[in-house]
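quick one, 78 residues, struct below
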Amino acid sequence: GYLAWGIVPTTGAIQNERLEVLKERLLGRLNDLSSRIPEDLITKHSILTPSCGAGSRTEEEAKKVFSFLKSLGETMKQ
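---
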């Protein structure tokens, strides 16, 4: 199976969200899980997703959501 993280908000909260905060949140949760499951197994079976659909967001907000997802994906690969 796979773990879909739903890590990037798609509510109005995206307007004030910062990438560094999301990175810290993701790495913290990854660290918590890796105490019970090997980290390489987690990362191989992870999908970074928005928390919900982005269809109700403005174009600017949707771009921010997917830009954050791209950056977080690069963080997971490190």
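The beta strands are 3-4, 46-47.
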